[in-house]
Amino acid sequence: MGAKNQIKICLQGKLKAFMIKTNLEYITDTNSNFEYLKIRPAGASYASDIARPLKHPLCLNQFNFSEINSFLLDLTTTCNAKCKFCYSSPYGRVSKFNNTDLLAIDEILHELAKHSLLKRIQIGCDFEPLISKDFHIIGKMFQQKFVDAPLIIVTNGVNLDKINIKDYAKAGGSKFILYVSMHAKNSDIYKSLVKGADFDLIINSVKKIRTDFPEITIQFDCVLTHQNSSDLTAYIQWAFCDLGVDLIEFRKVVIPDSNPALQKEIGLPYHVFLNLYESLKQNNLYEVGELNNSIVPESFWVKNRINIRTKLLREKIWQLKKNEEKFSNKFLEAEKKNSELQNSTCWRITKPIRFVGEKIKKLRNISNVHK
Questions:
Q1: Coil, helix or strand at residue 361
Q2: Sign (positive/negative) of CA torsion 303, 308, 314, 319?
Q3: Beta strands of the chain (E only): which ranges?
């Protein structure tokens, strides 16, 4: 059964779905260096950008798929953590896609998979994707349509222990990035910045994913504040060496002028941010990217130079695991066929003949020895 048919069955064959309005909205941007399409459940509470309703699932003439090189998908319009510095409202709803919405997403992914221009597919943009009730269904869609896709899941990590990223990792392969918000090495500092998150649970989940999926890239996102910026070197070493993280993006905290109390509590002066950046650039252990000050908040990334060899080793281990899995599957198939053969009527009927044949063979061997 083809992937397309499996999805249609999963969606219970809603043949009239193209006449039904979806509960999705979309945003496109053609003014930046890349053209992107963002899909999300309708009614995002902050909605600062101009979103238009997606009329029905097969209305694909709304988009020029050959032009799109970045696709962003929000699976919900809320979050299960409350970061002090977050700009998105955490008070939306945990959306569940209906069959019409899923069919629309399936059709869009089908069209996107035909084109090679895609440089980025991002799950989770402004809201938390792992709390979506449809996370695994949409993972199946990706796995059936994409190979080595530039796929990113952006998450706060709170639900990492409750979900399985296997289908997304298969769709992305070595290009897959798990982007986890981790704003401190110290548990107490982390909890003061992020309400509703279990620090130890997230760290243990990251360690398990590193072991289970050695081929993927794990990236941390750290918003720099007054509280967590005192010892970045220790944070970086911990992320790289203890957790097997490949890349860290540091962003300066942005606090609105209307909240002076929060600015006083966690605000980070710009000159301190610049000094942190310059000091890291002097460290030969790390590869530090250029400061991106073209957007707010300003950011830069840090990569472990030594980790390049570690990543190659992990990819070799992953390849060995894949080969072992293939061999194991072949062995199980052969064992199954043998079991089916032994339980077949033909096998049972010919058992006496085979028994006599074995006896004759033994007698011949004895006769040959005496000769």
A1: helix
A2: positive
A3: 24-29, 36-41, 52-53, 70-73, 82-83, 120-123, 151-155, 177-181, 194-195, 217-224, 247-252, 286-288, 299-304
pLDDT of residue 209: 95
The CATH architecture assigned to 3-313 reads Alpha-Beta Barrel (3.20)
Q: Where are the alpha helices (DSSP H) in 146-247?
A: 166-172, 187-193, 199-212, 232-237
Residue 41 in tokens: 């459940």
Map out the domains of the chain as residue ranges. Answer: 3-313, 323-370
pLDDT digits (tens, 9 = 90+) for 254-277: 988 888 999 999 999 999 999 999
**β-pair type (177-181, 286-288):** unpaired
184 near 220, Cβ under 8 Å? no
For the chain, the straight-line distance linking the first and the last C-alpha, in angstroms and rounded, comes to: 61
Name the more confident of 177 and 360. 177
For 43, the token pair is 């009614």
| Residue 124 region by backbone torsions, left for phi larger than 0, else alpha for psi between -120 and 50, else beta | left
Contact 184, 227 (CB under 8 A): yes
Cα separations in angstroms, 321 against 206, 212, 265, 285, 327: 19, 10, 48, 30, 10
pLDDT band, residue 20 (cuts 50/70/90): low
Q: Are 191 and 219 in contact (CB under 8 A)?
A: no
Maximum pairwise Cα distance, the chain: 106
**Tens digit of pLDDT for each residue in 338-353?**
666 666 666 666 777 7
Instruction: Tell me the percentage of the chain whose pLDDT exceeds 90.
Output: 44
Any idea what DSSP says for residue 160? T
Asked if 327 contacts 271 with a C-beta cutoff of 8 angstroms, the reply is: no
Q: What is the pLDDT of residue 158?
A: 96
Yes or no: say if 166 and 121 are a contact pair by the CB < 8 Å rule.
no
Q: Give me the torsion for CA of 346, 347, 350, 353, rounded to 10°.
A: 160
Distance of alpha carbon 90 from the chain centroid: 21
Work out the burial of residue 283: count CB atoms within 10 Å of its CB; fewer than 13 is exposed, 13-18 middle, 19 or more buried: middle
